[in-house]
Amino acid sequence: MSENREISSNKDSLKYSYSDRPMPIEPGLSNDISPISFMTVKLAIMELIRDKSTTLHSLEDDLNMPYYLWFNRRDPMSQIKDWHPLENKVDGMRILRWYGIDLKQYMNCSTCSK
C-alpha cells in the first residue's frame, strides 16, 4: 500500500485486510504515535543544545538512557496483557508511561556488535 491508513470501522477494515486474517480496528492509532514523536524531538533538541546555555540542561539527568520504552495498550496476546492500569501509582511497569532502559551490548550478537 502506498500510504498508511488508520482503520476505524469494519467497512474500512474489509478494504485493507489480508485474506488469511482480519484487520483490527484501531481508531486513534495516530495519537499513539504522537508521544514517540514528541520524545524524539525532545531528545534531538537536547543533543542540539548540548553546548548552549539553557534551563533545559536540567533534563540531562532524566533523559540519559540509550533506549526508551513506551507502551500504548495492554495487548491480550502479549507479555504485558496483565499490566495494571496507569492510575495514580508509581510502582511497577504501567501502560502510557515512558521507561528508560540501558541494554548491554553483547559482542557475540549480530545486531549489537555492529
Explained architecture:
This protein has helices at residues 10-16, 29-48, and strands at 67-70, 98-101. The protein is an alpha+beta fold and 114 residues long. A two-stranded antiparallel ribbon has the order 1-2. The radius of gyration is 19 Å and the shape is extended.
Sheet having the most strands: 2 strands, antiparallel
Elements, N to C (H/E): HHEE
Mean pLDDT: 78
* Low-confidence residue ranges: none
Shape: extended
Q: Total helix count?
A: 2
Helix content: 10-25%
What integer value in Å does the Rg equal? 19 Å
CA distance, first residue to last residue:
32 Å
Q: Quickly give the structural class.
A: alpha+beta
Strand order within the widest sheet?
1-2
Q: How many β-strand stretches? A: 2
Q: Which band does the percent of strand residues land in?
A: 5-15%
